[in-house]
Amino acid sequence: MNKYRTHTCGELNIKNNGKEVLLSGWINKKRDHGNLLFLDLRDNYGITQCVVEKNNPNFIEIEKLPLETVIKINGKVIKRSEDTINREIKTGEIEISISSYEVLGATKELPLPVFSDQEYAEEIRLKYRFLDLRRKKIHQNIILRSEVISFIRSEMQNLGFHEFQTPILTSSSPEGARDFLVPSRLNPGKFYALPQAPQQFKQLIMVSGFDRYFQIAPCFRDEDARADRSPGEFYQLDLEMSFVEQDDVFEVVEKLMTKLFKKFSKNKLLFEKFPKIKFSDAMLKYGTDKPDLRNPLEIYDVTDIFKREDVKFEIFKKLVKTGSIARCIVTKKTKDKPRSFFDGIDNWAKGQGASGLAYFTLEKEDKLSGKGPVGKFFGVQALEEIMKASSAEVGDSIFLACGKQNEVEKILSQARQKIAHDLNLIDENTFAFCWIVDYPMFEKDEITNKIKFSHNPFSMPQGDIKKLDLSKPLDIKAYQYDIVCNGVELSSGAIRNHIPNLMYKLFEVAGYNKQTVDEKFSGMINALSYGAPPHGGIAPGIDRIVMLLAGEKNIREITLFPMNQNAQDLMMNAPSSVSEEQLKELNLILKKKK
User: Fold this and answer.
1) CA 95/CA 106 separation, integer angstroms
2) Fewer beta carbons within 10 angstroms: which end of the chain, N or C?
3) How far apart are CA 76 and CA 16, in angstroms?
């Protein structure tokens, strides 16, 4: 028999009544009732209430034990009275009458409480992460993460995929985010890079004749932290398939996500067949390529309205004349909302750095009119045209923005979510997946005005590749796609360009000559020259999937040992200084700060 426990703290029930048991765990909570001391013992599996009477020789010693002391108790399972049963825990029908105990691990004074999930300073939580992870909510999040990954592995194997591991030390890439570099001791002056993703390797796996690959892959990017992105490293479900088209990839991912989200959440799926939305349509209707489809609000273009003679809203008219666009959001049946609601949205927009949002409500007594600060600037026919363009009706309200396209898209995308939340239009118990498709192959850099790849440079362009018009690169669409859920981008993917000559031509458009491509992507180009199959894939982020399933807003809540916003591990004191001897071995000299 195990000397520490006969059962876990989440295992005992009424069937064990009268049995002598051993339990080990942490003291989660104590309640002193004078003649009785109640003690909640916690381990990975649950909580069991234990009780010691005052006449027990161990009473005073146990009473003095601080919370989070690790103890072993020997005792008898007792049925609780009906009025003391705790229905919230699995062991709530019984308690343990302690006969003896042993301290297995003493504790110092706690820097943060463990028995509650109250908010606490992030710096303390990350420095004492091993304590933070004992707390119920985050402990369950980490177990959820483990179960999700196990389920994904099993399902991918059922779908005919093989798991392979790709190198961690590789070469630096000129595309994407900033690399983490590792100096080579055996090759002085040269560096490895930690992989931003196994992109080139997984394509090489397809060239090697394997048909379906997947990996729970660690990825490393020297990027700033965000709520949905860890600084430094993250994990993704990396997958690639040979002899496939775009829809074949979609079918696999939809099957996996549908099963995954049904298994690990009680929330309903709004779509089991995920809608496909063109990139251009997403930017028009939602102002973003990461739309939250739980939100019924849409954005409409009304630029031409401000070219009419019966519109006297001069600020917008002048902007439209100089090339700006005007777009609007319609809120249904909001005519009875107080002025404070509309002014609140306007002031919120100003707080986001925009000039605000103009607004009015459609009314009709003798004739159609606009009620609100700017309603008087629109004639009847102009209002009718707005209604026609936006499917608005009498009693609806119109929020308007005008300016450069990217600025209008940004503020109306944010306003769409803000207004929907204020009007309680979003069902938080729903998951809404979609695909964003038909991304442009190239885009113009706003700063340099040069043509660059918009997504993945290794993507296959759409259309007849023999008749591809490279003189109009911004018109070329690619077989690139994103999968989005509830406004969160889970991943980008693409059908790959497996034709070397085509790749040279496309890279040339983005400013890379043949020599540069051969130098930077020598392994890829060389491999594709020896008979490569058409192939494609995607890599949904594990962290973001678990965030959605756990209902968390910050990625640190589902990550075992995360860094802080400055990419520092406060618990392990990383990054840290290294010795002169280590630097010498690596042929490195640190530049002294002035």
Assistant:
1) 24
2) C
3) 9
Distance of CA 310 to the CA centre of its chain: 46
| Ranges of H-type helices in 58-121 | 59-64
Contacts of 232 (CB under 8 A, 6+ apart): 180, 220, 221, 222, 563, 567
Query: What mean pLDDT, rounded, does the chain reach?
Result: 94
Identify the pLDDT of residue 13: 96
Spatial contact of 494 and 480, defined as CB atoms under 8 Å apart: yes
Tokens of 230: 């860890």
pLDDT tens-digit series, residues 474-515: 999 999 999 999 999 999 999 999 999 999 999 999 999 999
Q: Are residues 95 and 85 in contact, defined by beta-carbon separation less than 8 angstroms? A: no
What's at 128, amino acid-wise?
Answer: Y
Per residue in 62-98, pLDDT (tens digit) is 999 999 999 999 999 999 999 999 999 999 999 999 9
Q: Kindly report the number of other CB atoms within 10 A of residue 166's CB atom.
A: 19
Which pLDDT tens digit goes with each residue over 8-45?
Answer: 999 999 999 999 999 999 999 999 998 899 999 999 99
3-state secondary structure of 555: helix
- pLDDT over threshold 80, residue 172: yes
Three-class SS state of 471: coil
Look at the chain and count its residues: 594
d(CA 24, CA 13): 17
Longest dimension (CA), the chain: 94
Burial class (CB in 10 A: 0-12, 13-18, 19+), 465: middle
Q: What is the pLDDT of residue 447?
A: 87
d(CA 435, CA 482): 6
In single-letter form, the type of residue at position 565 comes to: Q
CA distance 478 to 457: 10
* 527-532 LR contacts (CB < 8 Å, sep 24+): 527/203, 527/204, 527/207, 528/207, 528/498, 528/499, 528/500, 528/503, 529/500, 530/207, 531/207, 532/206, 532/207, 532/498, 532/499
Judge whether residue 174 has pLDDT over 70. no
pLDDT digits (tens, 9 = 90+) for 133-143: 999 999 999 99
Euclidean distance between the first and final Cα of the chain, in Å? 65
Selection from 494, 428, 431 nearest residue 461 by Cα: 494
**CB–CB of 314/307 below 8 Å?**
no
Residue among 243, 241, 239, 197 at smallest CA distance from 214: 239
Cβ atoms of residues 107 and 65 within 8 Å: no
Q: Tell me the C-alpha distance between 290 and 482, whole Å.
A: 8
Q: Is the pLDDT of residue 261 over 80?
A: yes
Under DSSP, is residue 542 helix (H, G, I), strand (E, B) or coil?
A: helix
- CA distance readout (Å), 212 to 164, 215, 547: 10, 11, 27
Instruction: List pLDDT tens digits, range 394-414.
Output: 999 999 999 999 999 999 999
Instruction: Look at residue 521 in the predicted model and tell me its pLDDT.
Output: 84
Contact 474/452 with Cβ under 8 angstroms? no
Percentage of residues in the chain having pLDDT higher than 90? 89
Q: What is the pTM assigned to this prediction? A: 0.92
How would you class 189 by CB atoms within 10 Å of its CB: exposed for 0-12, middle for 13-18, buried for 19 or more? Answer: exposed
